[in-house]
Amino acid sequence: MATETLNNGIEPPILAEANGSFKEPLAIIRENSCLKGDNKQMNSEINTYIQNWISNARKEYEKRLPSHRSRDSRNLVKFEVVSGRILDVDVDRKHVAYTIVVTNDSKELDRNPNVIERRYTDFLDLYSKLRHTFPHHFTSFNFPKKLFIRNFAPESITTRRLAFEELLNLIDQQQALKESGHFISFLQNRELLEAKVWIESNRFDQAIPLVENTFRLLNKVHTDRHPAVLSCLCLLVACCDAYNYYCATYFAELALHRYEAVSDADLLQFYVPLLYVCLQRYQDSAAKVYVEERLISMKRRGINVAGHPSLLDIVMTAIFGSSPNK
User: Fold this and answer.
1) Radius of gyration (C-alpha) of the chain in whole angstroms
2) I need a labelling partner for 21 at 20 to 30 A (CA). Which of 51, 53, 162, 310 fits?
3) Neighbouring-strand partners of residue 84
4) DSSP string of 295-314?
5) What separation in angstroms does the CA of 19 have from each of 23, 114, 133, 260?
6) What is the pLDDT of residue 263?
7) How high is the mean pLDDT of the chain?
8) pLDDT, tens digit, for every residue of 287-316?
9) pLDDT tens digits for 83-92?
């Protein structure tokens, strides 16, 4: 079974280090031999955008390393809003995208920071919902107001960036806020909804990096067996398996290991389809026997282990409300 060793117990097969340097998800996927066919070439503009965006975010993160290393390690996670960049949607519309870097907050350098991007409206929506549900948690925090002029002035972007960073770390320090569905949605929805579009188009090569980054981000913020973490991990397993990606077995084994102590009924609906994914992918006979014994044991206890939807269908339905085949 999987042994867990790095950053909340995850060995990073995709976000791997190569000679001490970061290797981006899309670069790893592009190098994988199963993706070299002409019909699966990466869109060059998307690839360049993601490469530059993550690279710039990490440069901003590395500028802060002295203060990061000197911090007390009691807070396990640290949110940094490292930059804001102006995006022109069209001639009349533009907005600022704020880059968030999430790291393990300790004296050791986090070699696998997670990077996401959010707009002012995303932060406003998060703040408004949390303040409505938990009004007493925000008595000393002032959310930056909307501006009708100078929205894109450097000083306005900096003021907002610092306020957003304060908000995220305030949420992370309050368990009730951190566990709220509003915060989980803020962390995962944008990337998972984009991944859903790719999955429905059978472009798993594009979906996998989005789902994996979301899984790793959620796993930094929450425990290994948190419902949001396990759901996202199962989606990652399903995508890798559907694409016959070389990390599929690793992630399937990791998910199976984490299910050993799970009793949440909503999560258990993924368990039987996950077992069948493992059964199909395992090459080791002892591992196959373990999975077969689990299925036999469940059947003896009166649990139906036949006729289940695929893992991809059942996870997509649980997360998005519909499977990719509907």
Assistant:
1) 21
2) 162
3) 98
4) HHHHHHTT---SSPPPHHHH
5) 10, 20, 47, 35
6) 78
7) 81
8) 999 999 999 999 998 988 998 899 999 999
9) 999 988 665 6
Structural tokens at position 23: 């290797």
> Residue 72's pLDDT is what?
38
Name which residue leads in pLDDT, 60 or 101. 101
Q: Do the Cβ atoms of 10 and 4 come closer than 8 Å?
A: yes
Measured at the alpha carbon of residue 23, what is the angle toward residues 227 and 12, in degrees to the nearest 5?
35
Higher pLDDT, 91 or 174: 174
The span from the CA of 258 to the CA of 236, in Å, is 14
pLDDT at site 58: 57
Cα torsion 4, 199, 31, 57 to 10°: value is: -70
Best CA proximity match to 217, nearest among 186, 193, 195, 246: 186
Provide the token pair at 309: 């939807």
CA distance readout (Å), 317 to 10, 58, 193, 231: 26, 34, 13, 11
Q: Which pLDDT value is given to residue 146? A: 85
DSSP-H helix ranges across 88-153: 120-133
The answer, yes or no, to whether residue 193 has pLDDT greater than 90, is: yes
H/E stretch holding 280 reads helix 271-281
Angle at 206 between CA 200 and CA 210, to 5 degrees: 100
Residue 200, classified by CB atoms within 10 Å of its CB into exposed (0-12), middle (13-18) or buried (19+), is middle
What string of DSSP letters covers 15-57?
S-EETTEE--HHHHHHHSGGG-SGGGPPPHHHHHHHHHHHHHH
CB atoms within 10 A of CB 206: 20
Residue 93 to residues 90, 105, 141, Cα–Cα distance (Å): 5, 37, 30
Q: What are phi and psi of 171, to 5 degrees?
A: -60, -45
Q: Are strands 114-119 and 17-18 parallel, antiparallel or unpaired?
A: unpaired
Q: Whole-structure pTM over 0.85, yes or no?
A: no
